[in-house]
Design a protein that fits this description.
- The chain is mainly β.
- It has one domain: 60s Ribosomal Protein L30, Chain: A (2-Layer Sandwich).
- The chain is built from one helix and seven strands; from the N terminus they run βαββββββ.
- The strands form two sheets. Strands 1, 2, 3, 4 and 5 form a five-stranded antiparallel sheet that branches.
- The chain is globular.
């Protein structure tokens, strides 16, 4: 198990822009504020989205396109560094107008209305490195 200890830093509450791409806008906020490690949560609505599930045998993501409008019931994730830049890793649950849900890795989404909480974590930054056993970029050792 790879465990780290952090202190809470600044906390940002943000309303994202109509029509913005959600993952990019969160990443831009982290870059602008110098956040290298953190946690995030989000709620709101998306006009469309792209989720993914990781095929563990093939070591590749399978895309799930979700045409909206959809409610973003919940999105949770974290910020760490990948290739020296803040990287957003988030999963989301989306619900259509009849309450049917889809979930997975949040690849992208067009914001209709979204509110996020971005909590900075202060300490040795988490750095993502390629893990050959899983094919994923996971937090490396200290």
């Amino acid at each position: 198990m790879n465990v780290r200890d952090f202190e809470q830093g600044r906390c940002f509450l943000a309303r994202l822009d109509l029509g913005a791409e959600i993952v990019s806008q969160i990443s831009d906020l982290a870059k602008r504020e110098g956040i290298k490690t953190g946690t995030l949560s989000a709620i709101g609505a998306l006009s469309r989205a792209e989720l993914a599930c990781y095929d563990q045998a093939a070591h590749m993501y399978q895309t799930i396109r979700v045409e909206g409008p959809v409610e973003m019931v919940s999105a949770l994730g974290n910020i760490s560094l990948r290739d020296g830049q803040p990287f957003v890793h988030a999963h989301a649950v989306l619900a259509d107008g009849e309450g049917r849900t889809r979930g997975g890795h949040l690849m992208k989404g067009e914001v209709f209305a979204a509110e996020i909480c971005l909590q900075e974590l202060v300490g040795q930054p988490l750095i993502r490195e390629h893990d050959p056993a899983t094919g994923l970029h996971l937090w490396g050792e200290r």
